[in-house]
Amino acid sequence: MTQLRGQQLVSKLDEDGTLTVELADHDVPAPTDTQVVIRVEAAPINPSDLGLLFGPADIENATFSPGKIVAKMPEAAVRAMKSRHGLAMPVGNEGAGTVVAAGDAPAAQALLGKRVTCFPGGMYATYAVADAAMCLELGDDVSAEQGASAFVNPLTALSFTETMRYHGHKALVHTAAASNLGQMLVKICQADGIPLVNVVRSEAQVAILKDIGAEHVVDSSKDSFLDDLTAAVDATKATMAFDAIGGGKLVSQIMTVMEQVANSGAAYSRYGSNSPKHAFIYGALDLSPTVLTRNFGFSWDVSGWLLTPWMGKLGPEIVGKMRARVLAELTTTFASNYKARVTLEQALSREAALDYNARRTGEKYLITPAG
Amino acid sequence: MTQLRGQQLVSKLDEDGTLTVELADHDVPAPTDTQVVIRVEAAPINPSDLGLLFGPADIENATFSPGKIVAKMPEAAVRAMKSRHGLAMPVGNEGAGTVVAAGDAPAAQALLGKRVTCFPGGMYATYAVADAAMCLELGDDVSAEQGASAFVNPLTALSFTETMRYHGHKALVHTAAASNLGQMLVKICQADGIPLVNVVRSEAQVAILKDIGAEHVVDSSKDSFLDDLTAAVDATKATMAFDAIGGGKLVSQIMTVMEQVANSGAAYSRYGSNSPKHAFIYGALDLSPTVLTRNFGFSWDVSGWLLTPWMGKLGPEIVGKMRARVLAELTTTFASNYKARVTLEQALSREAALDYNARRTGEKYLITPAG
């Protein structure tokens, strides 16, 4: 077959702190065995992509030229990311497109010409390589755009409820809850009968969630926030939280409220309640430190949460069911909304980069390499 | 039998924020069934006792009169401790003394006249009531003072190593490690072959631990602290920490160092290592917030740790073995040192209260009610 050539968006951090994000020419390797080559049609920019793409680099003061951004990375981050120094790393966790070449294995050959969604990394490119077993074939009624975000958010939202069951909790609190992911979680919890407290940061976000039928929506920008949160935690008896924000006092406030609800009516114990309270931090919309005031007894856990190791913990049977559910409900429960569509080159413009790097809830970008 | 009368140290918080700590007259109830009455001879003031005794009240500006302290509690704490408003709560978790009265049950009668150590609460008193099953009888060669701290610190130190095994870790970091508890942990880890990194806050504390043969002792007051900690974590491969301090950045620094050690030589992952890192906060020597910078990937847990629920989790077989070991090694592994001995009344003097409430490592007080 002819050699496929295209472009690939790569991010490179040099030892001196220079971050270069650029479009590089990409000679696509011929697929072997179960590999397929996908002509990428749509790939979302998720917060987890921004970590590799820009990290904490100073994009505001970067130098922009066509197809290239050069920015300065803070010193501490340069040191922490030692093992990526000098490497041009392809970006883009997930996306959808058409299979244009395939290895010899029947599973790969069967996908030739089909539209698929996958999660191989390197999807901000004209072509990407994936393993056939990890691709989900899209139905004729599902566009590439509709199928582009079938992994990160849907599997994360479903894994939240499975993590809850794994640890024996019965109700959840979710922050930055008006996000695409948050809206999916609202729909999952509705369908599965899981009480859910949604914490959002504006009146407009309250409206988004109320519109899709969310019962408990609490606005952290209001003076009555802590009282509202207490009422919602009391109503749901939520004892586990998933937090996308990371920085600041929100996790601590949620734990404090959970502890107050657990203690209401109980006899005084200097050590607090025995009620387990568990917050998982899965994002970093706020890069500042997490501040825990520890006025919530000694029965608490705050943990990092990451999709891949948790899917390993949950095991193939549960993950298989999650994948099947995503595919069946791709245009309903797991529908995503995008603020803007950009080509690979447009994604590296100053205007676009500053806008999507602001990580505002509900303002996600979609890269459409073919334009 | 004659009614036993004595004095009991109680702490009462009123709704208006007034904290009253005083010696109250105490008519000791006649023991029934398996209960015994102990004439208290020695009871330590542990940090966990100070939480109930004073909490965050302003002892510096309190009013002191013989047998009485009246102090102001900060508003947030008054609200958080609603369920203790108006209650005169007896203080003193553990201590040792002689059994002077016993209920009818043979187990109780068998202890009459014996010296025992126990953990019933209310030990800052002339007499205290305990259940016979929860008392450990002291050998003739062990004084009440030697037996006074047989529960809180020894069982906590032993439970740390059991918690480590429970979670599948192999080496530990311990902070405020020059404390009585910390010295016990050094001896346990030596005997059991568990690599241990001791974090202390002064050169003098380094000397205390080196004197008892500790291998890895790191001084957080030195400029080279982070480098020293990294070297010690690298040498021990410690992935679990127990922290007595709570406030500030120390827990975060320990996690960061553990992550750096886990990553050294590994390929770059934007999500950090998969190496589990778990810090338990079991104390609050620093009442300020815990500050987590989260530059240690997503594979981490920070949890509260409390002795009683953990003993429940470990189960009666392990706890039984721990109790037997404590009794056998009370004057060696589990020996405690005290800075000062005070009567009940002396414990409420300004000089003593300010001194022991400073919670300085290695400066523990012992209450000897009989003087």
TrEMBL record, chains A, B:
Keywords noted in UniProt: NADP, Oxidoreductase
Q: Which residues form the Enoyl reductase (ER) domain?
A: 17-367
Does the record bear Transcription in its keywords? no
By its UniProt entry, which Pfam families does this protein fall under? Answer: ADH_N, ADH_zinc_N
> Which GO molecular function terms does the record list?
NADPH binding; oxidoreductase activity, acting on NAD(P)H
**What protein name does the entry list?**
NADPH:quinone reductase-like Zn-dependent oxidoreductase
Native organism is Novosphingobium hassiacum
